[in-house]
Structures are given as C-alpha cells and as structure tokens.
Amino acid sequence: MLNRKFFAATATLIGTIIGVGIFGVPYVVSKSGFLLGLFFLFGLGGIALLFHLLYGEIVLRTPGKHRYVGYAEIYLGQWGKRLIAFTSIFIFYGALLAYLIVGGKFLQTIFGNSEIFWSLIFFTICSLAILLGLQVVAKMEILMSIFLIAVIVLIFIKGLPVIKLDNLSTLDWQYFFLPYGIILWSLTGASAIPEMKEILVPSANSNTKCHLLKKAIIWGTILPLLLSGIFILTIVGTTGDQTSPEAIQGLIKVLENHTIIWGAVFGLLAVVTSFLVIGISLKKTFWYDYRINKYLSWALTCFIPLIAYLCYLRDFIAVIGFLGATLAGLQMIIFVLIYKKAKKMGRREPEYSLKLHPSVYYILIVILASGVIYQIIYSF
C-alpha cells in the first residue's frame, strides 16, 4: 500500500513538472550553447529541488489542508496573502497565453495552414470546455505527462543516431541569461506538493506520519530534471541552430514525419489538459473566492489571454521566460520567507527538517531577486 502511495505521489510531482514548458527549453539552450544550458539546467534544478523540499516542510509543519494563499496568510498575514494571490492570477493568465500560442503551433505541425487560425480554433474549443466545466479531460493531466515522457524517449531513440557534436559545442554569451526563466518555469512543480501529502496521508488526522514525502519530492524532481537533459541533448544535438521555439517543428528536416506528428499530437494533448486545468481553476477562483458571476468569471478567465494574443503577444519563449523569471521567482522568494516563519511558528512536528545555514536563505533570495530584476530590464 505504501509503495503504491509513494509511486502515486511521485508521479503527481513528475506529471506537474513535465509539461509544455519543457518544449521551450531546447530553443533557448540552442541559442546560449549546450554547456551553458546544462549549467542552468542543473543549477536551477538544484534550486527547484530545494524549493520543493522547503515547501514540503511547510506543508508538514502546518496542520490542515492549505495551498499557496493559505500558507501565505497563516505565516505572513494579509499582505502575503494578497501578493501570492496577485502573482498566482497573473501566472495563470501567462500560462493560458503560452498554451494558446503553442497549441496553435502544434496544430499547424499536424494539419498545416495558419498558426493564428489554429490558435483561434484551439481557443474556441477549450474556452467552451471551461464554460461547461468539463473536468474529465483535465483529470487526465498525469496520463498526458506519461505519454509526453514516452514521446521524449521515442524522439531520443530516433534522434540519437543523427546527433551532431558540433551542435553541442557552441557558446554565445550574448544569450547568457536567456535560458534562466524558461528552465526555472519548466522545473517548478510546487503546486503538487500539498496533493502529494494528501495522497500519502489521506486521513484528516494531522498527527498521521508522512515519512515518504521527502523521498517522493526528491525522486519527483530529479527524474524530470534528467528527462529534460535527455530532451535537450536530443533536440539541440539534432537540429542545432535550427531548433524551433516549441522544439517539434525544427525536427522536420532530420526525423521521420510520423515521429514529429506523434510528438505534436501528444504535445497538443498536454497543452489541452493543462489549459483546462488552469482555466477551470482560475474561473473558480473568480467565481468562488471573489464572488463574481459564473459567466463573467469565465469571460475574465478566457478572453484576457485571447486579447493579449490578438495584441501580438505571441512569442512563446518570451512569455514563459517572463513568467518563470519574474512571477515564479517572486513566489519562490515569498515562500522562503514563509519557510523561515514556519520554522518558528509551525504547530506540527515535521517528518523531516532541513538543516540549512542562514546564508543559504539569503543566497537563494539574491539569486531569485536578481533574476526578477534582470528579466524586467531584459523584457522592457
């Protein structure tokens, strides 16, 4: 029983991390250079792992069931609650915009025709599903992540014989910072951690022990990190400076058509499920938490990303890079502050407690704050 729960909890984190963000990583690595990309991948992978462990300890130290906003309110008060709520809503909007962009790209790869046309078709179908509250497809997110993993392995097997070492030896300092936000976004899956605890300890009794959470977090973070490394190696090694922003279209010249179509199909399914999960969640946030009419909540959820898209915000890399470096970075900084408070104020003895030197907190905050500031300057 415990093994099944452990694997289910680990799969939940893997499924949350392995998503659309991974498709943007090879492009930025192809620009900066493979070795520099690996430096960011494993450096930020270490930060993501530390963040997930910090969040896991917060969850274990706090009785009851809470999420981002709840923990911020408990340990930082109303200002923390408002700031987390603000950043979460805009992360949702940015993610919906990114999915709208890349959904059109995947449909264009499968069917041809105009990318804008297919993005509008994608929006029409998904927005109607959100209006109707179709959560059946949304609940398939982990299953779609399994298919994505299978496609990544297939692309690796097919691409390995045609990898060119020359494509892996480039380095361009002009694009030094470019991978930062995209990689940070692609490796963060903290929203899954409260769910993991509930999988491991479904009982409402807060005294029930949850000894497997730390191990599940470590494996659930490291496996996507390694998979991302394999994906980067394959895509950049085969397509080099011809790597496309969503990774798949650039493979057309080097791999069989059926491999590319399978990649685009399962990429599309992952985008659809992610769009529905986030869209329904955001609609319910407006509807339940802010007491906004159901239909107006739907309109606020769906049409703001569409308006942004129609206003030419269609750069997939720029959108997820900004989300990762600024909003996700800011949320991580807030959770470092929450963690320090939880160490003192937490009302439950956790199953694990990280022994970190105080300087680690400040180094982490400086790195993340530098990323926020630089990305804002870089973008505007």
Features:
380 residues, mainly alpha, Amino acid/polyamine transporter I, globular
Please provide a written account of the structure.
With about 375 residues, this protein is mainly alpha-helical. It has one domain (about 1-380): Amino acid/polyamine transporter I (Up-down Bundle), CATH 1.20.1740.10. The chain contains 15 helices and no strands. The longest helix is centred in the first third of the chain and has 34 residues, at about 80-110. About 50% of the residues are buried.
Largest sheet geometry:
none
- Unreliable spans: none
Radius of gyration: 20 Å
CATH topology value: Amino acid/polyamine transporter I
Question: CATH superfamily membership, which one?
Answer: Amino acid/polyamine transporter I
Strand content: under 5%
Number of strands: 0
What is the name of the CATH class? Mainly Alpha
The coarse silhouette is globular
- Helix run count: 15
- On the 0 to 100 scale, the average pLDDT is 89
How far is it from the N-terminal to the C-terminal residue, by CA? 52 Å
What is the chain-wise order of helices and strands?
A: HHHHHHHHHHHHHHH
Please indicate the count of domains: 1
**Proportion in helices:** over 70%
In short:
This protein is 75% helix and 0% strand. It has 15 helices and no strands. It starts with a helix and ends with a helix.
Describe the secondary structure blueprint for this structure.
Blueprint lengths: L1 H16 L3 H12 L1 H28 L6 H9 L1 H34 L3 H18 L2 H4 L2 H19 L19 H9 L5 H8 L12 H27 L17 H33 L4 H17 L5 H30 L12 H22 L1
Helix pairs in contact: 1-8, 1-10, 1-11, 2-3, 2-9, 2-11, 3-9, 3-11, 3-14, 4-5, 4-14, 5-6, 5-12, 5-13, 5-14, 6-12, 6-13, 8-11, 8-12, 9-14, 12-13, 14-15
